[in-house]
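User: I'm putting together a teaching handout on how multi-component assemblies are represented. Below are the sequence lines for each component of a complex, exactly as they appear in our records. Could you produce the 3D structure of the whole assembly as structure tokens, so the students can see both representations side by side? Please keep the chain order the same as the input.
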Amino acid sequence: MKRRKFLKSLLALLGSTTLISFAYPLVRFVAPPSRKSEVKRLSLQKNEIPSGEAREVVLNNTPAIIINRPGKGYIALSKVCTHLGCLVEYNKAKGELICPCHAGVFSLDGKVLSGPPPKPLSEFPLRVEGETILIG
Amino acid sequence: MWQRIKNGLEVRIGLEDLINTKLKNYTVPRNTNIFYTLGGVALVAFIIQAISGFFLLIYYVPHSEHAFRSVQYIMTVAPFGWLFRLMHVVGSNLLVAVIFLHMLSVFFMGSYKKPRELTWIVGWLMLLVTLTFCLSGYLLPWSQLSYWTTTVVTAMPTAFPYVGDYIANLLRGGEFVSGITLNRFFALHVAFLPPLLVGLMVIHVFLIRRIGLSSPPFDESAEEARPWTEYRHVSYPNGNSFYPYFVLKELYMVALYLVVMFFVITFLPTLFLPEASNIPANPLRTPAYIKPQWYFLAPYQMLKLIPNKFLGISMQIALIGTFLLWPFFDTKKERNILKRPLLLATFTASLLLWVVLTMWGRSS
Amino acid sequence: MRYILSILLLLTLLTVTTTADAGYRDIFGKEFLTKPWAGGLVEESVCIECHTSDIIKPEFRDIPQEWKKSWHYHNDVSCENCHGGDPEDAEMAMSPERGFIGTPKYSEVPEVCGKCHIGILKNYLESGHGKALKASKTGPNCVTCHGSHNIQKASIKIINESRCSKCHSYERAKIMKQALFLTEKKIREIDNDLKKLRSEGVFTDEEDRSLFRTHVEYRTLFHTVNVGLVKKSTDKFAKKLGLIEEKIDKTFKELEFRKNFSAFLMMVFAGLGIVIFLLARTYKD
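Assistant: Of course. Below is the structure of the complete assembly, with chains in the same order as your input.
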């Protein structure tokens, strides 16, 4: 009977170890993801980017470009090509974004015009408030 | 405090009586072997699948654009997401293995015989539901592996004339595996199948408790030879009590199951997640080697080998039907398979054939 | 009766299994795997059809085979992407109207490759190599170093004595190779680490991309064949590669942690199993 008692307390000990070893991961798992590096906001003055011009920034660790499209307004796009990850370049004359690695061509909306990229460039939310452009 | 709760419950629901009649005085045969615990292990394994699945649902997005990424998020970003995903993945394979073992032992010990035919049939249906679970869950990560394996497996019904294509298209929601298929399989996996399986499980357990556990047929004293002309509950007055004796036996088998599971997670984490499960689905590029999951390999290989596709698929249906209704085919009273060489030979041959087909399917 | 039936079933199964040969597998493959719903049907282009048959000059016949060994083939770059023309229409396949250019002239090769490799073309044209080609039509073009149909993923091995000394002394090339060496080595190491991570089930897409971006930028720079420029940028690239390395190290540590954690759980369950087993025995006696 003594042995049974000992085994039972051992069982309780191991059982609670198990419980804790699962409870801890569970609590961590369901905890809301930390947002500290997720959103990086950025604000610019409208007159910093004249029509047709572009400005390169780094948003949330991603190289990005803000373009003032003639007649269509501002847009903030990731510069990372969706093909293999090279950085696209803004070609002002053609009004296109061109990847130097394998000639992927994107429109200024980020859509694929030609070449190997499988998906459009990702876009960052952008808002214009008065004379200020808010990105992110 | 504890005593007061206990008393409160005792007054209201008669707790002690419940425990006594259902657990302590409920007896199991003295000569039960460890194979008797496999059903219980399968039940616990299923509960583990359900719970880990619930937690995966917190981050999983059932959309072809996001599914792969969300699974990668679980694996790399969400803290301990890998633990729940690997438990779910490894668990699903082990669960199928446990069910197979359970069925083999039930067959071997002749426990399917009168009056337990219904239990056997319900068990078989549960196997089919489990396999559908596996099939539908396999597509959800939307990787190359899941996409192309699903393509191959959902092509199997096309072997039927006339209705084959219709069935395949119904499954896929179109001509080929697409985002529509993903949503269908997702709905199957988390909404249609679980209540179905739970329902069957309830019936299965009810039948076992109502009829009474069968005893292993190998001892002389096995079961009374009285014919089953009317209902009677099989009980074992001299047997071991269900609790604690049998429950503890089940529990250490469950612990063994978990040891195996975590052995695989520790030392072979990529056993069920090969390279192709790490590449997003690409409908335009078939990977070089695509094989169904190991438990589908035997029927797959059989279908591949039989020149006439219709013959192949009807044979499979016939085989499933034969095993499903086996208790009605095999009505001999002798339960000890060792005394029935013909049955033993058939049993061994089918098992061998299954193993051979699986290995063959794996290597070809 | 039931017995005979089931045994018959089994027997047919067995005979079918043993008499089956590879032919059925082909039928299955054709019927099951290549229907349109089995994904993109890979169509043989008409280019390859002719270029593998005996109606074509023997020296052209090996081209498809060579191409199939290439990095281009591996990445779905086919005949028409370089040579133009129409791979779906045998009649018009080699018509200039469909953009067919055939074998490009020696001095125009950079423009053909540069249709896709824009960045490299730019740097190459500014380089001594490019200027020599344009001035004398005899300088080295892309094919001189990289080959044509059986083109392989570029590596530092391309810079070697036998190749460079075809045109000039190896001395300068050697200095360039030395300048590249450490960075190239690091790129290779990171590449191997990523391969290892992938084999352990880690999705390395982001790291793959930033490595690709960095190494392409670096190699593009190399095409200026300007040692000073390469040396000057080495630090910048070392820093970028260092960032990727840091991330990889973190992932390896995470994998180690996972292994330990799940091993711990395994031990706990083993302990539980043993204790329950012993406990069960105390009830038996």
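A couple of points students might notice: Residues 179-211 of chain B form the longest helix (33 residues). The domain at 35-220+239-288 of chain B is CATH 1.20.810.10 (Cytochrome Bc1 Complex; Chain C).
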